[in-house]
Design brief:
11 strands; 6-stranded mixed beta sheet; about 60% helix; disordered C terminus; 24 helices; alpha+beta
Length: about 850
């Protein structure tokens, strides 16, 4: 499979050469059949034709088998073509010697275009000189041995050979130009794909490091922080069973940290094992967990980790806060088609899953959750949001708590999943955030909620589409330029055929008209693909000019020649029609292209069959080898065969190249995507491991030895000094986890840091992407936010929750806090804005600020819409 655009181009071109060689063999056989009366009396010519046909079959087989062009094959192709060109007088009837409508010229053309592809410039030039010399040598030999009676209208084979040599050089040069241009396109495609792959790899590594940092923070919260906090509070350490439980918790925390440092966490797609381990840990800590039989699942490994981690935190919350020692955990697999592929359990079905953790404890109100509680925010809501899932928590005081964790693949929606499980549909997220009742999503250094692709990420479909478009546009422009240049070469043929024209003025006028048609068609095709009506009109006009020129041709025919009269298509328009058809092919007008090819061949056939005798020959039959007046002899049929071969040969190059290049583009992009993914995975593993070692260094050096000492009984968790040490470490970890969210605020972070320095504990929650906030809005927020935080502090609030929502279409910022009975705050910056309860202010038409006070709960809301960075505020 091709892995670069250049390899794709190589593959397509080599296959096209094989197809052209097979077409040449078919044309050669047809030519010999048409001239069978001559070849039966000239065994040397027949032997040469047979040898070239065998070589053509061998060439095609070798190329298709190897998928490349060996040097010896290219050299043999050139030498054999040169040999038959030099011996044209022996290989061809006298009436055809030196002309373009022969299998000798076709063989020379094939050798030239193959050399244009396979050889360097100097070697290619040598090949063209060799072929031209051989062709002129053959024409000269035919001229010297000329039999005027047998040659018929071909009294100057050397002149014909000279014209054919000019056309041969033109074809070779144009093909070389096309190859160079397509090579540039391939190089550009490789560069762009390589850049996209590098950007995606960097984005994947960055995303992996971010995910691991969040998982590392959750691990610290769920294990080390909870264990340290429990010891600091003296929980479970008053008696022997409590001491044993504390030791087990210490070992669990130590194992969690070391497992992350060692990178030995096993990936699994089945949720059963991880859930049973979560339940076992909860039971070891004194919580009775009822678990119905767990179904087998086939989920992405990251989803399994997220669900298990969130369930563990929910069970820990039940043990710590619910006031009950009993809970239930249930797992339900939802229906619906999913992306699973292949045989196996769970494959081919929807991979939706629902985990429910419930208790009959004391329950709670969302607004009563302290701002420094990170468990639900980070370990539950954020965990599920990162993998595309959802956490829904319903609780009422005295009624217990029910938490639902849901995740579904593209084929199984959350609503259908929840409904199939017998539960209520998950609530539709409100159009506006309600921070006063928000338990999550929670604080984190990275945004949570809707997944946003990384800027450098380029999907396979996009890269393949870009590569296909590059090839299509490049091929179209190349054919357009080649068509214009090739038409200029037909001026030589026009001059050579003027003596056989009824009217020189008419012939020149038709040539000028065709020039205008080719210029218009090439110009349009170079800018954009032709439309169907345009394409059909262009071909119709081209065929009309061909008919006019054909009807105006009166070739001189010596009636004694055995080949019969020449045809009316032995003129320059036949050389132009293939490029017009090629313009249709590169515009991807398949139906119109087929119709145009059929019409072209039909028109040429009619001209041949109805115009064999244009006057000048006797109306007598010439036997099997000739024709009478109005008949069609071998010469006319051979010219029709050659014209058809020329039409089809160019269409093979163009029509075969386009679709194959487009298909190969998908392979190139897919191979590059797989290679990029592998490289990103390897680099991510190294970077993540380094991040873990740096991020957990303090924990490993200072906290783990103390926990080991507690687990081994060397330190007594009831000792006040041990509890104080645990409290200090817990406070340090908590500050790290909480303050990390301020980093996502960017220029807004100093206001939060300043408020904390003055005693106001601010929990930061980020939803969406802060990078979507326009600079003008960000600047105004930086001016307003310090005053808002000052107002909260002046109102006697010791804690506040700051929620930032960034979306492409706009965003919101909420600040919620509880007012104290007596407002007394520390000195600080002057408030930037003051709003009465229920008030609303349009801040310079950039921000809309409103405040709402209910009982002692205050919520300040700031809204904004997308701002044009160039035009300024609306």
């Amino acid at each position: 499979m091709a892995t670069t655009a250049h390899q794709a181009l190589d593959t397509v071109t080599v296959r096209a050469f094989a197809a052209l060689r097979i077409l040449h063999v078919a044309y050669l056989v047809g030519y010999v059949v048409v001239w069978r009366s001559w070849y039966t009396t000239h065994p040397a010519g027949l032997a040469a034709a047979v040898a070239l046909a065998v070589w053509g079959v061998l060439f095609a087989l070798v190329v298709l088998t190897l998928g490349r062009l060996p040097r010896l094959l290219v050299a043999g192709n050139v030498l054999l073509a040169a040999a038959v060109s030099a011996g044209a007088a022996l290989c061809l009837p006298a009436q055809s010697a030196g002309g373009t409508g022969t299998w000798v010229f076709s063989a020379a053309t094939h050798a030239a275009v193959v050399a244009a592809w396979a050889c360097r410039r100097r070697a290619f030039t040598g090949v063209v000189v060799l072929l031209v010399t051989a062709f002129l040598t053959g024409g000269a030999a035919a001229q010297v041995t000329l039999d005027s009676q047998a040659a018929g209208t071909n009294q100057t084979p050397l002149v014909r050979a000279l014209i054919s040599a000019v056309l041969l050089v033109g074809i070779a040069a144009l093909f070389r130009m096309a190859i160079v241009r397509l090579g540039v396109i391939a190089s550009d495609a490789d560069t762009r794909l390589g850049t996209a792959a590098a950007e995606r790899q960097a984005a994947d590594v960055t995303a992996a490091r971010r995910r691991d940092r969040r998982e590392r923070e959750r691990m610290l919260h769920d294990t080390v922080l909870n264990t340290l906090t429990g010891i600091a509070w003296g929980g479970g350490a008053r008696d022997r069973p409590g001491t044993v439980l504390t030791a087990e918790q210490c070992r669990y925390a130590i194992d969690a940290v070391r497992t992350m440092l060692d990178g030995t966490t096993a990936a699994t797609r089945d949720l059963t094992g991880p859930m049973l381990r979560v339940v076992a840990v909860a039971r070891s800590r004194g919580l009775r967990v009822d678990v119905p039989p767990l179904p087998a699942t086939d989920l992405p490994a990251e989803v399994v980790r997220a669900l298990a981690g969130a369930a563990q935190e929910l069970l820990a919350n039940v043990r710590r806060h619910a006031g009950t020692d009993q809970a239930t955990l249930a797992v339900t697999v939802g229906p619906g088609p999913g992306p699973g592929r292949g045989p196996g359990p769970g494959r081919g079905r929807g991979r939706g899953v629902r985990v429910v953790v419930a208790d009959r404890g004391r329950g709670f109100l969302a607004q009563d959750v302290p701002a420094d509680r990170l468990g639900l925010a980070r370990s539950v809501h954020a965990r599920l949001a990162e993998v595309g899932g959802q956490a829904t928590i319903r609780s009422e005081p005295g009624q217990g708590t029910t938490a639902e964790l849901t995740w579904a693949s593209a084929g199984a929606g959350l609503t259908a999943l929840t409904a199939s499980a017998g539960g209520a549909e998950p609530p539709v997220p409100p159009a506006r955030a309600e921070p006063a009742a928000q338990v999550g999503p929670g604080a984190g250094a990275e945004p949570v909620g809707r997944a946003v692709p990384s800027p450098g990420w380029v999907p396979s479909g996009t890269s393949a589409a870009e590569l296909r478009d590059s090839y299509a546009a490049g091929l179209r422009r190349t054919v357009a330029v080649a068509a214009a240049i090739w038409f200029g070469c037909t001026a030589v043929v026009l001059v050579a055929t003027l003596p056989s024209s009824r009217s020189v003025v008419l012939s020149v006028s038709c040539w000028c008209g065709m020039a205008l048609l080719v210029a218009v068609a090439a110009g349009m095709s170079r800018r954009r693909p032709l439309r169907r009506r345009e394409a059909l009109l262009i071909v119709a006009l081209g065929l009309a000019i061909t008919v006019v020129v054909g009807l105006g041709t009166v070739p001189t025919w010596h009636g004694t020649s055995t080949g019969g009269p020449p045809s009316r298509i032995n003129a320059w328009p036949v050389l132009v029609l293939p490029v017009l058809l090629a313009l249709l092919a590169v515009s991807r007008l398949f139906v119109a292209w087929l119709v145009a090819i059929a019409a072209t061949i039909a028109v040429l056939g009619v001209l041949v069959l109805t115009g064999a005798d244009a006057g000048g020959g006797p109306a007598t039959a010439t036997g099997s080898g000739g024709t009478g007046s109005g008949g069609t002899g071998p010469l006319a049929l051979a010219q029709l065969l050659a014209a058809t071969n020329g039409q089809v040969a160019l269409q093979i190059m163009v029509a075969m190249g386009g679709p194959v290049l487009r298909r190969t583009a998908d392979q190139v992009a897919r191979a590059l995507e797989e290679e990029t993914a592998r490289a990103a995975l390897e680099q991510s593993e190294r970077a993540v491991q380094a991040d873990r070692e740096r991020g957990l260094a303090t924990i490993q050096q200072e906290v783990l030895p103390m926990l080991e000492a507690v687990a081994d009984g060397l330190l007594d968790p009831r000792d006040q000094a041990v509890r104080d040490r645990c409290a200090r470490h817990a406070a340090a970890i908590r500050r790290t986890l909480v303050s990390g969210a301020a980093g996502a605020l960017g220029t807004l972070a100093p206001a939060v840091v300043g408020a904390r320095a003055h005693g106001l504990e601010v929990e930061v929650r980020v939803v969406g992407e802060p990078r979507h906030i326009p600079p003008a809005v960000r600047e105004r927020l930086a001016e307003v936010l310090p005053g808002m935080l000052w107002d909260a502090s002046a109102a006697g609030a010791g804690e506040a929750v700051l929620t930032l929502i960034g979306e492409p279409a706009g965003g919101q910022l909420f600040l919620t806090y509880r007012r104290a009975a007596g407002p007394a705050g520390p000195p600080g910056p002057a408030p930037a804005t003051h709003l009465a309860a229920g008030g609303e202010v349009a801040d310079a038409e950039i921000l809309t600020i409103s405040t709402d006070v209910e009982d002692d709960q205050t919520c300040v809301e700031i809204d904004w819409s997308a701002v044009d960075e160039h035009a300024g505020p609306p």
